[in-house]
Description:
With 199 residues, the chain is mainly α. The protein is built from 5 helices and 2 strands, in the order αααβαβα. A two-stranded parallel sheet has the order 1-2. The model has no long low-confidence stretch (mean pLDDT 78).
Amino acid sequence: MAEKKSKKEKKPAKAAKPKKKPKATKKEAKKTPKATKKPEAEKPKAKKEAEKKQAGKKPEKKAAKKKPEKIPKSKEAKKLSKMVKAKKKRMFRGRFGKRSIRKVSKKKWQKWRKPRGIDIYFKKEDGLVPSPGYRTPKKIRHVHPSGYRESFVRNIKELTAIESKKETVAARLSGKISKKKKAEILKKADELKILVLNR
Length: 199
């Protein structure tokens, strides 16, 4: 008869684990050189520029836009611009909302709203009320801070109409003009030396 296997069989011996290396001290870590990083792959644009430099060609620069010549201000325009800037700015506040909330420091209340109630009485703290006495002088009325009066321009024909008054009148181009048409008008304005407020 075959020999009976022993119940407790011997297990195969496990492979010995490799011993951990001792950690390097701070001094040793400083001495050991760090692994150098691999150079990153060059970008295609950078490569092209490098090739051009090697060939002796300089990289092309974008053409700078030509700035229009500054149109000298007329004496009258200078005088009017000074008057416009010296004009007092008055604030009209409507008598609306609660008095405790209605403050000058809050932007919301720095607007004029017409009081529509029948029982509203104005007091000094309610602010000024718009009246004919506060109207701007005729000389400065509808004058741009640059000292010129504005004229709306949609085409070259309207631009040439300003030519005789160019010392006091400036052009304001329509927003509905195409790019091509706008370029034509601006070119003509530079020839005629007419100021364009919105280039």
